[in-house]
Amino acid sequence: MKYGLLGVDAGVQIPGRVTPFFEGRLAAGVLGGTLDGALTIPGTTATVSGVSAATWMYARGLDAGVELYVLGPTYVSLGLGWIRTTWGSASYDAMVASRGGAGLTFKDVTHDSFFFKIGVGI
Length: 122
Prior knowledge:
This protein is mainly beta. The chain has one domain (about 1-120). The protein has one helix spanning about 95; strands at about 1-15, 20-35, 40, 45-50, 50-70, 75-90, 105-120. The strands form 2 sheets. The protein has a 5-stranded antiparallel sheet. β5 (about 50-70) and β6 form a beta hairpin. The longest helix is centred in the C-terminal third of the chain and has 5 residues, at about 95. The chain is elongated.
């Protein structure tokens, strides 16, 4: 199994006792592996061995909030955000159904998430 993920975050803020901020992020990665031994495909009598496959994922998101400096350098951070992740892979369903006669197709699954962050920092 091999995998990797790389991303970048960037943001702006207005410094002060009350510090609003806005951030954006992008990330992408891949996961690949090779099957050791044989595997029977669930729901069929077909067996595969020595195959390799890869999946990928990418994400993008935004969040905004405020840092409230309460005592010297100590602050409380509050933020709201959104992130959309998309996972993709080859879809082997058509190939299995036709016993290898169909071409390879790809499938993506996308999901949106919303979050609320609370933090304490120095």
